[in-house]
Amino acid sequence: MTNRRDFLRLAAIGAGSMLVAPRIVFANVATDRRFVFIIQRGAADGLNIVIPYADPAYAQLRGKLAIDVADAIKLDGTFALHPSLGNMGTLYTNRQALLVHAVASPYRERSHFDGQNVLETGGTSPYQLRDGWLNRLVTLLPKSADKAIAFAPTIPAALRGSADVTSYAPSSLPDAPDDLLLRVAQLYDKDQQFHPVWSAAMEARGFFKDMETRQNPAAAGRTAAEALVRSDGPRIAMIETSGWDTHSGQDGRLANQLKALDAMIDAMRDGLGDIWQQTTVLVATEFGRTAAANGTGGTDHGTATTALVLGGAVQGGRILADWPGLAASALYENRDLKPTMDLDALIAALAAETFGLDPERTMKTLFPNRPFNRSLHGLINT
Known about the structure:
This protein has eleven helices and 13 strands. It has helices at 4-14, 58-62, 86-93, 112-121, 133-139, 178-187, 194-212, 217-228, 250-272, 343-355, 359-366, and strands at 23-27, 34-40, 50-51, 73-74, 80-81, 97-104, 148-150, 165-167, 236-241, 279-285, 305-310, 318-320, 341-342.
């Protein structure tokens, strides 16, 4: 368990993250590299994020949900980026965005909870493993003086495991009056042990109040950057985003979700400054959505989807895909984009190259009994 002094100091870094919609988790390891995992809870529609506009079946399957390539950010002769991802389009132009398509975890059913459990734990079936791949990644890296800490009521599955982790959540009790806080400060003003701890707590409280005035996705990106950029700060972050389950009214909802994601990542990039060049950001979801639109202006639970790899350390400006096509004969179970790339192998390769680890050992540790993909290399500048 972390001691009280460490707890209060770390609280000053991340207390604000609890007040914004995305939840942020940090882990401390001794390295100069940064790794950020953004999970899209709800099964994001990869076909309308990285749009296969040149596939003959795309417009027919999507109908009114098809994104007009004239509005989208054209990437090459086959794919385009959703128009809400303007900053990400700039990263792609600057070769700092690697877009991965037709990718999926081993999960092949359609339950959000089970799919997220497989994605976060690295098992081949739901609840097969009790710990998470992000926690196992921490065990492969040099230890930091500080422990991992989750600024959330519960620790997400990806960060549960043998590496020391604790959690912090804001109290539901009413705020203490300022007069009481002042009296406590005066009472312990001469106490060499308690005075600095109390001062740190008050600093965290001020940070908290400031964050209440800027609850938006960009604030979450800035909060993550403020922690990651510190010389004594964490090096691994996980950001949980929700709201990607678009069974109806998908057009507007997905556009807003992607606009928020774009703003959050851009704020993080801006806040990291030069550290962005040492940063890898992975955006992934539990599974994709059906190739065809449904009757309520949305899409239903599918299989393969997209993963986005961003950062100054990324060998980007390209799309990584063994494109299976959207013809009826090519669809998985006659309804979904067929998976042609293993998300687990992609994550292991990214983690290994980011931190200079042995790729095969990383694969075995993060995703036990899963096949290692030797072709996945050269993703990150080492």
